[in-house]
Batch of 2 targets.
Target 1
Amino acid sequence: MVKITGFKTNDVRFPTSLTGDGTDAMNTDCDYSSAYVTLETDSELRGYGMTFTIGRGNDIVLAAVAEVAGRLLGKDTEELFSDMGATWDYLVADPQLRWIGPEKGVISIATGAVNNAVWDMYARSRKKPLWKLVVDFTPEEIVRSAAWRYISDAITKEEALAMLKEKEAGKKEREENVKKVGYPAYVTSAGWLGYSDEKVARLTREAVEQGFSHFKMKVGANQANDIKRGKIIRSIIDDPQYLPERHKNRSPNDESVRGKNAGPTGAVLMIDANQVWDVQQAIDYVKGLEEIKPWFIEEPTAPDDILGHAAIRRGLKPYGIGVATGEHAHNRMVFKQLLQAEAIDVCQIDSCRLAGVSEVLSVLLMSAKFGIPVCPHAGGVGLCEYVIHLSLIDYIAISGTMERNVLEFVDHLHEHFKTPCSINDNGRYNVPLDPLEGYSIEMYEKSIAEFEFPHGSYWVGAAKK
Ligand SMILES: [Mg+2]
C-alpha cells in the first residue's frame, strides 16, 4: 500500500512584466507565476500540480493549496485512484474551507492544483501520460472520474455514458491519427498589447512561417489602435507571399476554417478583450472592428455575466462575429449556464481555473452534448503543458472531433518544464508520449531555485539592483 505522507509547495514567479509578455487590456503588468505543489508518498511515487497566477497573491493561493493538500495526508493512493470522482468530491467537501468559496476564487484554483497533482500521480503510477490514462478508461470509468454535483439539469450520468459509448469504436483510430498529424493550435504570442507594431509584424510573419493558420490579438485599450494592429496582422496572414510552400493550397473553404471569417489564404483572426467592457459597450466596440474580420471576441465582459455574454452574442450575430469565454469561468455551473443560455460559440476551459481534471471532464462532457467546440485557454506558465492532454481526451474519447478546434499556444517559459509541450511544422501540438511524464507539469529543480519568490537567486539579485 502506498500512502500520501506529505507535500511541498513552491511560490515560483517569472519576471515577465519586464518584457511586456502577457499584456492585454486588463492585465498590464504580469509576472507569470506558478503556485506549485508536490505530493509525496512513502514510495518513489510523486504527484506534481500547479495553478497559474500573474504575480502577487501566488503566496495566498499556496496557503490554500496547503489546506487542501493537507486533506490527503495518510490516504491510500490506490483508494484515491479507484474513484477519482469521489476523490474530487472529498477535496471540495471540507465544510470550513467550503465557506471561503464554495468552488470559486482562491480556494477553488488551489483545489485545481491539488486535484491535478493527484491525477499526475495516478498517471505516473500507471506509466502513461495523463491523456492516455484517461482515454484508456472505459466509459464507466470516465463518468466515475468527473464532478457531477449541480449539473444534472444539463447532463445526466446516463446521457454521458451513452455519448461515450457511441465514441468507443473510433478511439483507436483517432488516437493513431492525432499522433500522426498533431492537435491544431493557434498562436497568441504575436498580439500582446505591449508590443510595438514592428514586433507584432515580425512575430506574425514568424508564426505564418511556423505553419499556424489561426492568430489571436488583444484588443480593448484603443479602438483605432486595435484596427491598426489588426490590419498589420491581416496584411501578413492574408498575403500568399508569406505562406510557406507546404501551405500554399490553404483556402477559406477548408472545413477547418469555414464560418470563421477566414481570409483568402484560409487564415483566421481572433480577438480577446480580457473582460474590459460593459455589455452594450462590448457590442458597440466590437462592431467597429468588423473590417478586421474576427472569428470571435473572447471575454468581452465580466466572466460571471452569463446573460451579458448571451446578449453580446445576439448583438454581434448580424456582423458574423462570435463569442468565446471560459478562462475565468470558475466552475462547471458557470459553463453549464453559458451553454444553456446559448451565450458562447466556443468554450475555453482553463486547466487550473477549474478545480482540476475531474471538473474539466464534466465541462468537456457538457460541451460535447451541447455541440460547442472546446478550445482551451493556455499560455501563462504551464498551461500549454497541461491543456494538450485535455484536448486529446476531448478528441479521442469525448467529442470525437478536432476538425474545427484550436488549442491556444504561447511560446513562453516552456524551458522550465522537464517534458515541455512542442509544436510541429504545421502549427499543431505534438502528442506527449513519455510514459513517465504524467500531466507534464514537473518543473526543473534549478528553475524553482532560481525563480522561487522571494528567496530564489533571480529575485535576490533583482532586490539588490
Ligand atoms: Mg484570453
Note: The longest helix spans residues 105-125.
Target 2
Amino acid sequence: MITELSRNGFCVLKSHLAAPLIDACREAFWPMLTGYIESHCDQPNRGPNRHFLPMPFDPPCFAPEFFFDGGVLDIIRGAMDERVVADQWGCDVALPGSQNQEAHVDYQRPLFEETPDLSLPPYMLVVSFALRRITNADGPIEIAPGTHRMPREQAVRAVASREIELQPVPLEIGDVLIRHPWALHRGTPNTTGTPRPLVSIRYVRRWYSDNSRETNSIPLYIWNSLTPERQAPMRFPVGD
Ligand SMILES: O=C(O)CCC(=O)C(=O)O
C-alpha cells in the first residue's frame, strides 16, 4: 500500500473501518450537518453548493478507532515517520447542485517558497472515509495519479490535456482513502438528492504546521479519556 501511495499519490483500504462506528457517526452528525447547511446555504466555502465544516470531537462523531487504526497508522507512519500528529478533523460536503471543482492541491504554500517544485518526501497525508456510500452519482473525489511527484505546472497541463485522467474514487462504508494532498484532485457533482459527506483526518510530520483548515477543540473529558500515548499525536486545542 505504501508503494501504491507513493507511486499514485493515493491508495484505498477496502472495508477497513467498522461499519457500525461509521453509521453511529453519521446518525449523530446528520442533524448537525443539516442545521449547518440550512444556516450556511448562502455561504458555500468550497465552491457552489460545497461546504467544509470541522467535525465534532464528541462521540460517536469522534471515535478513537478513526484516529488510531493500526493498519492506517502503519501506512501513515511508514510513509512519514513514527512521530506524526493529527491536526485536522473535518468534513467536505458536496450538495445536490455542486459542480466540478478546478483540479487543485491542498496546501497553500510550498515548504521552500524559493524552490516550489522541489521533490520532497511526504510531510502530510490525508485519511478520508465516507459517512454514507459514495457512488459515481454522489460526487466522489477524483484524483490524478502521479501528479504529486510532478512539477505543478506540468501536472496541471497533463490533467488539462487529459494526458493524465482524473480517477473517481467511489467509496463503500468502511473504505479508507489515503492521499497526498499535493496530488491534483477535485470534487465532482453530486447528482443525488442527499448531501455527500466525506470526512478527513490530516496527519503531518511533527515539525509541520499551517492551520489551513478550521478545527474544533477536543472536550476535556474526551482528552482525559485518552492515554498519554494517544494524546501525544493529537494536535488539537483542548476545550472545557
Ligand atoms: O469534496 C471533495 O470531494 C473534495 C473537496 C476538495 O478537494 C476541496 O474542497 O478542497
Note: The pocket of 2-oxoglutaric acid is lined by residues 46, 92, 94, 106, 141, 185, 187, 198 (CB under 6 Å).
